[in-house]
Automatic annotation (TrEMBL), chain A:
GO BP of this protein: iron-sulfur cluster assembly
Natural source organism: Methanobrevibacter filiformis
UniProt-recorded Gene Ontology molecular function terms: iron ion binding; iron-sulfur cluster binding
Domain of life: Archaea
Pfam families assigned: NifU_N (PF01592)
Name listed for the protein in its UniProt record: Iron-sulfur cluster assembly scaffold protein IscU
CDD domains documented for this protein: IscU_like
Gene transcribed to yield this protein: iscU
InterPro entries: NIF_FeS_clus_asmbl_NifU-like (IPR017787), NIF_FeS_clus_asmbl_NifU_N (IPR002871)
Domain spans labelled NIF system FeS cluster assembly NifU N-terminal: 1-121
SUPFAM superfamilies for the chain: SufE/NifU
From TrEMBL, chain B:
Swiss-Prot/TrEMBL catalytic activity: (sulfur carrier)-H + L-cysteine = (sulfur carrier)-SH + L-alanine
UniProt subunit comment: Homodimer. Forms a heterotetramer with IscU, interacts with other sulfur acceptors.
Name used for this protein in its record: Cysteine desulfurase IscS
Taxonomic lineage from the root: Archaea, Methanobacteriati, Methanobacteriota, Methanomada group, Methanobacteria
HAMAP family: Cys_desulf_IscS
């Protein structure tokens, strides 16, 4: 059901954790649905210098969180904001159709974190 | 691989495979024919019937072979309902039945029958008082499972059967999860109909049986050539039936030994997990359970991830998490215990078999401890679980959820 890339990012997730003095924090999801993720950003000169995540959720939720941190790191805030759900899923060689909606929240979490950053500027 | 999902299915034992094989290659005749190869097949089929009957204290002519538990449940429930529709239209069942029972009842509801689904409370067991209250003069059938597949709780079948008998109501039990695990005797349990499956007791998939007490009349729901007393038409699955017969024979012989062994392994497993992992809780009654089955939930993590991490350690186990189900819904059995969705998500079911060892149990305890710690270290709700859980009290479904 899951691709090798999903399994790799689930079993060896990149950038797990929190950033204490984060410039932006985005939290999305609902534990009732089984998926809840938080993304922490450190931004310098409009560039994502550090990004970490924490996720309560299934294999797909953890893998998409991990993948988006890899994609977003080093990008400008605008580029990061434009990362779509499909881009995350494609980077993982696809997700099971039923997981596209519920567990593919990482792009939303990143956008929420960027909005949080912008609101503090 | 360490296989701890025996409630899903079990490996087929070598003795069973050996018993079946000649019925594919040598005695392949159609048991309805009169020449030798057909007679040999028929002999195998009838010998298997004896073995199934013996395990549950029935007579051979009270056993019909089916394609499995689902077919047995359908034949029994629809058969009784249709046969007795002039007497009444009310059926009583429990809220934690297998889908083969629940969906059959829902189908009958769409066709003029009324169904009462008994609650099971935190312990996962129906209450006799609720049953008594539910019975009306229109009640024609009670169908309550012997043992629940997800939490392993044992229902008070003998007591229900006694009441059904007094009220002259037909009583069916799905015994797929109790056969070979605890003693099953159709007279002691006071049942009229009882469903059996082979693949949960080290037999092959695609074969089962239905006990139909002598004198119990069923409407035929599967029409055809009239095999199996016109209740399960179609050329008999002779190798399958022989496999079921052998599995029943072995299950009967080893029942007592296995019950003791599995209870010991399971108790150690539960003790090991609950003493080594914080906030791990057993789901459902802890005593009235079949040996070998346990279901727990771990706060702050999601079960699909746990199952995948355990799979990475070569352990096969199951979860009631919505994320692992086809419908993305949390287990209705766990919900019937009063667990909220978030706790259902963190559930893990371990069902042991006689081939599991004490060493495997220790390895599984250690692996669960590591996997839960790992998922909690990644979890966005574990550290702030108290405040986050409070947010849940509004119990609102996810607002973006379009799958409702």
């Amino acid at each position: 059901m899951y691709t090798d890339k999903v399994m790799d990012h689930f079993q060896n997730p990149r950038n797990v954790g929190e950033i204490e003095d984060a410039d932006g924090i985005g939290e999305v999801g609902n534990p009732t649905c089984g998926d809840m993720m938080t993304i922490y950003l450190k931004i310098e000169d409009n560039i994502i210098k550090d990004i970490k995540f924490k996720t309560f959720g299934c294999g797909a939720a953890i893998a998409t969180s991990s993948m988006i941190t890899e994609i977003a790191l080093g990008k400008t805030v605008e580029e990061a904001y434009a990362i779509s759900k499909n881009e995350v899923a494609d980077a993982l060689d696809g997700l099971p159709p039923i997981k596209m909606h519920c567990s593919n929240l990482a792009a939303d979490a990143l956008q929420a974190a960027i909005e949080d950053y912008r609101s503090k500027q | 691989m360490i296989y701890m999902d025996h409630a899903a299915t079990s490996p087929v034992r070598k003795e069973v495979v050996e018993a079946i094989e000649p019925y594919f290659t040598e005695f392949y005749g159609n048991p309805s024919t009169i020449y030798k190869v057909g007679r040999e097949a028929k002999k195998g089929l009838e010998n298997a019937r004896e073995n199934v009957a013996k395990l549950i204290g029935a007579k051979a002519d009270e056993i019909i072979f089916t394609s499995g538990g689902t077919e047995s449940d359908n034949i029994a429930i629809k058969g009784i309902a249709l046969k007795n529709k002039d007497k009444g239209n009310h059926i009583i069942t429990s809220s934690i039945e297998h889908p083969a029972v629940l969906e059959t009842c829902r189908y009958l509801e769409k066709n003029g029958f009324e169904v009462t689904y008994l609650p099971v409370y935190q312990e996962g067991i129906v209450r006799i008082d609720d049953l008594k209250e539910a019975i009306t003069d229109k009640t024609i059938l009670i169908t309550v499972m012997h043992v629940n597949s997800e939490i392993g709780t044992i229902q008070p079948i003998a007591e229900i059967g006694k009441i059904a008998k007094e009220k002259n109501i037909k009583f069916h039990t799905d015994a797929v999860q109790s056969i070979g695990k605890i003693p099953v005797n159709v007279d002691k349990l006071n049942v009229d109909l009882l469903s059996i499956s082979a693949h949960k007791i080290y037999g092959p998939k695609g074969v089962g049986a239905l006990f139909v007490r002598k004198g119990t009349r069923l409407e035929t729901v599967l029409h055809g050539g009239g095999q199996e007393k016109n209740l399960s038409s179609g050329t008999e699955n002779v190798p399958g039936a022989v496999g079921l017969g052998k599995a029943c024979e072995l299950a009967g012989k080893e029942l007592e030994k296995n019950m003791k062994y599995l209870a010991k392994l399971r108790d150690r497993l539960v003790e090991g997990i609950t003493t080594n992992v914080d906030e791990a809780y057993v789901n459902g009654d802890t005593d009235k359970k079949v040996p070998g089955t346990t279901n727990l939930h771990f706060v702050g993590i999601e079960g699909e991830g746990l199952v995948l991490l355990l799979d990475g350690k070569n352990i096969a186990a199951a979860t009631g998490s919505a994320c692992s189900s086809k419908k993305l819904e949390a287990s209705y059995v766990l919900k019937a215990l009063g667990l909220d969705d978030v706790h259902c998500h963190g559930s893990l079911r371990l069902t042991l078999g006689s081939e599991n060892t004490e060493e495997e149990v220790e390895y599984v305890i250690e692996s669960i401890k590591e996997a839960v710690a790992r998922l909690r270290s990644m979890s966005s709700i574990w550290n702030e679980r108290e405040s986050k859980m409070k947010d849940l009290e509004d119990k609102n479904r996810c607002k973006t959820c379009s799958l409702e």
